[in-house]
Design brief:
The protein is an alpha/beta fold. About 45% of the residues lie in helices and about 15% in strands. It contains 21 helices and 16 strands. It has helices spanning about 5-20, 20-30, 50-55, 60-65, 70, 80-90, 135-150, 175-190, 205-215, 235-240, 255-260, 275-290, 315-320, 325-330, 350-365, 370-380, 385-400, 415-425, 430-450, 455-460, 465-475, and strands at about 35-40, 45-50, 90-100, 105-120, 120-130, 195-200, 225, 240-245, 255, 265-270, 290, 300, 305-310, 335, 370, 405. Strands 2-1-5-4-3 form a 5-stranded antiparallel beta sheet. A 5-stranded parallel beta sheet has the order 7-10-13-6-14. Helix 8 packs across helix 9, helix 15 packs across helix 17 (about 385-400) and helix 19 packs across helix 20. The termini are far apart.
Amino acid sequence: MPKNGLRKLESGLYGMNKIFSQRYIEMLLDHIDEGVQIIDQKGSIIYCNPAAAKLDNVNRSVAIGRTILEVYPSLTEETSTLIQVIKTGKPILDIQQTFVNYKGFKITTINSSLPIADGSKILGAIEISRDITAVRELSERVVDLQKQLYKEEDSKQKELKGTAKYNFMDILGQSQEVQKLKSKALKAADSLSSIMVYGNTGTGKELVVQSIHNASSRRNKPFITQNCAAIPATLLESILFGTVKGTFTGADNRPGLFELSDGGTLFLDEINSMPIDLQAKLLRVLEEGYIRRVGDIRTREVDVRIIAAMNMNPIEALDGNLLRSDLFYRLNVVSLRVPDLKERKADIPLLVEFFIRLFNNKLRKNVKGVSPLVMDIFYSYYWPGNIRELKHVIEGAMNVLEGHIIEEGDLPYHLQRNQEIVNSGRNQLSLRKSLEIAEEDSIKNALKEVRGNVTSAAKILQIPRQTLQYKIKKYNISKFD
């Protein structure tokens, strides 16, 4: 190698060594959100970043130089992941740990501990921690509240009360898409089979699931919901299956959601967010009807109907390795797809009327309806947020309007902008005007045939009554023309 090339290489290596010096490494670790601790081969803390100090509620100057067991008296050589890593030389990844620090605060973290070695010699260990104390406390509080809710009220009362509040009457819609969904879901409610519900965010999947539970023979038994994306993966297993005392530091004898929903329904939302290894354990429960608490040696029999949901097409979840194929086929005994609002626009007038009535009560308003132009905007909009978005649009408009009719100016900017785009192309769309004229003539003829009876005319035209009423108002048609 030429001398100038060697000098460049040496300069580069010197630069890398400088960048990766202790000073710069500490500067980097001081600015990350995860807690980082480093101990030497004797177990003494030699580095603790600000995030770890805040997490453990310790003073860095107090912690550094002391042994890990001195700072965390609730830990032992057997339960400390850092000490175990020094002893074995093997990393320990994504382990949940609950401990009490020297100030008496109980903390729960998810830790990854790695050995620091020079060849075969272990020099120390580094641990990266993520705080889940609040999440764990909240999850356990929810489980405890559910346990309290579902316990027998007295020795004579043996039936447990469910908590699903919706039924099929609450699923609004007269479109063919909704009628088919309700018919299929009602039939599925009579069976004991697992159900997979899928549809985009805001379409009303939980409404369908609760309706199925309340129409089933399990209606008086528990209905429990768990969003699989809302809980860290390492915590989700203990929430579902429960724990036994001593499983990990701070663990208690605690039933999981499977035990609490025994005899009833367990709704697992966003199941595609559940870790693959946990999906395997769920499959085993579905196949065998037994669960085992985390750390337990005995099994417990449970009778639980599983209804799972996801906000994506199951085929996409399978192709993306987000869902085990064997679990999918076990859950997908009955498959229900909840349609987007853009696929059932005939239901918009009915939904608008319902939400106006809802927010009239909540906001103490007296809104009568929406203008024909606003209804036109609702029909032309594509509703990416589905029914939930429509609900929020109505609520927002009712908070700002001054009269009794929701006008275009009361709507969010993006809906007004959408209408501007539609209007800009209207002069070029003579076909639309032709269709409107044909539609108006059809409505007039149908009303004339049944002497102004809107219900009968809607049957002739094969559209919902509310949709016909909107179109009569839109075209300013007299029922007796």
